[in-house]
Prior knowledge:
heterotrimer, B: mainly alpha, two-stranded antiparallel sheet, two-stranded antiparallel ribbon, 14 helices, 6 strands, C: mainly alpha, 18 helices, 4 strands, 65% helix, globular, disordered C terminus
Amino acid sequence: MSESDSGADAAPVEANVPDDVDVDTDDVEPESTDSAAEEDAKEVPRGLPLRVQNLRKTFGGITAVDDTSFEVEEGSLTGLIGPNGAGKSTTFNCITGVHEPDGGTVLFNGRDITGMRPHEIATQGLVRTFQIARELEEMTVLENLMLAPQGQQGEKLTYAVTPGLRGSVRHDEESIREDVWEMLEFFEIDHLAQEYAGNLSGGQRKLLEMARALMTDPEVLLLDEPFAGVNPTLEEKLLERIHELREQGYTFLLVEHDMDLIMEHCEHIIVMHQGQVLAEGTAADIRSNERVIEAYLGEDV
Amino acid sequence: MGVTESFDGGRLRAYLREPSVVLLAVAAVYLLVDLVAKLAGVSAGIAGVKLLGGHVPVSNVVGFVFDGLLLGLIIGLAGVGLSMTYSILNFANFAHGDYITVGAFSGWAAAYVVSFFTLGIDATFGEIILLNAPSLVSVVQTPLAVVVGLVVSALFTIALVLGLDRVVYRPMRDKEGIALLIASIGVALALRYVIVFFWSTSTRGVTSTSSESLPSFSIQVVDGTYTFNLHEVTMVIAAVALMLGVHLLLQRTKLGKAMRAMSDNKPLAQITGIPTERVVRATWIIGGGLAGIAGFLIILERGVLSYNFGWRLLLFIFSGVILGGIGSVYGAIGGGIIIGVASRIALVWIPSGFPRVAAFGVMILVLLYRPSGLFGGVTTA
Amino acid sequence: MSVGKRFWESLPAPIREDDTVLIAVLLALVAAAYFAIGGLQAFLAGSTVVNAAAQTLQSILFLSAVYGMLALALNLHWGYTGLFNIGVAGFMAVGVYAMSILAGDPGGLPPGLGLPVPIAIVGGVIAAAIVGGIAALPALQLDADYFAIVTVGFSEMIRLTLQADTFSGTVTNPDASGYNVVNLLGFSFGTGGGRGINTPLNSPFNFLFEGPLSAVGETLISAGESIGVTAPVVESAAYTTFILLVMLTSYYLLVQRVGNSPFGRVLKAIREDELVAQSLGKDTRIFKIKVFMLGSAMMGLAGILWQGTRGFVNPNTFRPLITFYVFTALIVGGAGSNTGSVVGGAVFAGLLLEGPRRLAGLINAIAEATFGGLPSPNTSWAALTSFDPAAYLGYIVANIPNLKFVFLGVVLVYLMQNRSQGLLGYRKEIASSVDLSERPGKPGEPGAAAAPDGGSNSGGDGDE
């Protein structure tokens, strides 16, 4: 990338030198590569929609999350890995308001969301899936998905009931229904649409969980082991979709135990161990990090 | 299952700084000061508005405290069973009040039979067992009858409770709490009206209250007298003895340790090899036995027996159990005593008819602000 | 329950498939049965058959409708949202008492506010809604069991407050020591305390029979008399028809609408897993409060329509037992199903509540007519030791009111053990205002789970 190209660029050099400057243009190397600052200036710096700072959470005498800090870049697929008990799910819970942290800050799009209630956080665009899929068992798959989109007018009691307003609710429902069927087809569970979610297999539940989270149209999606029990081909398809969404600006933070998946797809990986961030970096960094290897070997993964 | 909260100084201090607790403490201090002022006959006010004090005879307050204690001991005793059922079997047993009623009826029927036998009075057996004959039972005149009644009330209730567990609750071990709660309501209704089927709904006096059969004592208290009788004394002695027994059971025996472990953390207890069906049975036996005896004792003290007195006490017992902390036996006893005393002392400030309302209000507040109760225990199922 | 299933399968298709037909047929059966029983009883006793039969008929239909309405309201709380509310009686009390106080005669005992009845009814419903809102607040924090206990506590607190002498308004002389009229915001009123309070609605359909529309009323009465039915029965029957056709239907449609909507979806989600609903951005607290207020208002109104027409109520009318009745009706029919609520109301009123009593009355009538009546021993011991089967029967029949509760208790236990979903509870109603099975781009296809690919999750092959 740093080759000088003499012929073609000579002309611009001459053309760019002002008339009253006395310079021997033969000695001037044309710029053909950008300096570091110029390189940086070409790209709009990526935002940091999610920042976790010094997060702490204790249960009784056990410190599950101990002074954890990390940042997730916009439009990235970031991996969060660590041996069992490292504190990953607890961290998710603290970020999304399920637990109130004992210390530290969580910033979402610059706003301090530490300790906010789960629904407030979700309406702002930060949505998560659960490690043990939580289906609404006595509701059908269709109902599960129709539940997810935000800002449904029909969720207000008066709109649901009043004859005139109900017409507009139906209209909304019909368009949501279209989206829901599309989503079902994409996830290849459309044949299960009218099944009660409680009858689904483990893998199908995971798919439902992810589909439902996506239906909320979140900015940042926290995925807690979403591919457990999902067949590899579908997994690839879903990862493709995740990458597509990334290009559009969506951000994903992914907890997984499948190392190959993480190494292959995540541009940035955070390793947690015993409640703390052990290491951060690209797949190559992590693979060769001794402390990481030690942490995994020392535990029963 | 809930996690027993660890009790360290930092958390206590944080807890004490919570606004609701501060408010409660302020209210408690105000009431205390007001009570002392009232006892002293002193008033204090600003611009003609009375803020504090008044006059309340000391003997009244002493009376309230002792009456409350009597009530509280019973609620506490009965509450032990309810608390244990709730924590070990995970449901609110709405039939517990009727267990108390069953204990009373069975115990008193037995007491009647024995008393008529020992006194050699002529009355038909039907009249005796149906508690329709005029009563001659009292601690003084027929002590044996009272003892027998006590024992029978416990045994009969235990047998009933075990039977009910077999038929109603065991097949439902895996169901959720609400289903069990509804089933227990069914049991409560059925029990109550089976009793009515046999004994009819009439309220009857069951103790002999003439002055020779039931001596009463008066003690002078500052500005009045407080009167009590031997039945009340008997009740207190019996209740305290039973509570001591329960305490010893929990602390000194293996079974007691197992029960404490189970109510703390059931899955853990199961893993460590404590036989749970046995503990469940022990729970019913102890809880049911205490409920039955409590029923017998209340009626000994009150002297009047009705078919739904247990049901009417149920919410009080729930209040005591919740206040003391579900799963904690000591909590049930302590909570019961506090509720009993508080509901009577409240008469200093609020008109009669409302202490019950106050007790239920306290229960609701406890559930909202400190669901684990005063003495810890399981937070929530 | 294969016997039950076989029975269900053997019913004609229109009944199984169409809920309205189901309800109508069931009510018709109950009505016919009671008509027959009432008639038979009267026949044996020698009184006018048609009148007695008509009275029995309208009374059972009235109770079925009322319990159906209450069950529907409770279904909103429990079936849809999973909030187990054992305080139903308390909300009914608030509705009836608020209405009675608002409409009470200011010079009466206890004094009231003297407002016109329609306004008083609205006031009663609003009062019930407000109290419902307050009662919902603990629900925001508590688990199901604890919340249940709180609702009983609330219900009892309401009942005891209404019963207390302090607010009863029975002593209206301000100088008297026992003065207990409540003076609030310039209004004076009392609750009647333990003695109860008059309700103003005792002839709700007066306007049909005495006012400007009396021509309608008179036609009805003369029609009735021509077949042997007396005027009071005609009036009651008119009211019952109104309740059944107008109010019950309205309640049903309202709950259906609420349930089949995004609002209803969130309610179900709260019941299933509140954390999930919250994690999807729904503020579950607001939903709980709204649904609780609506349900309580409905309970208050049902209470008004029912007890408000008796002319007189007292706090004992609203003891917890009434709540148990309502949720027995709901459990029998199936919590979560609206049709189930109505079915449950009819089955409960017909079989569990009134059935035993009517049966006893019938047996007695038969006994009277055939061999001069059954013996009625005074006590259980007397019955037991008589070794006379007729005496056993006589004692049992005389004690049917008590045995009814035992039966009720056994039924509850049985239902919880074996069939906790009730008669129709397995039917889950889809919470949406549009038909979700309609699939865009594939019109006419019901989108059923008839998957040709074996229905498995192996989506890898044949994808575009």
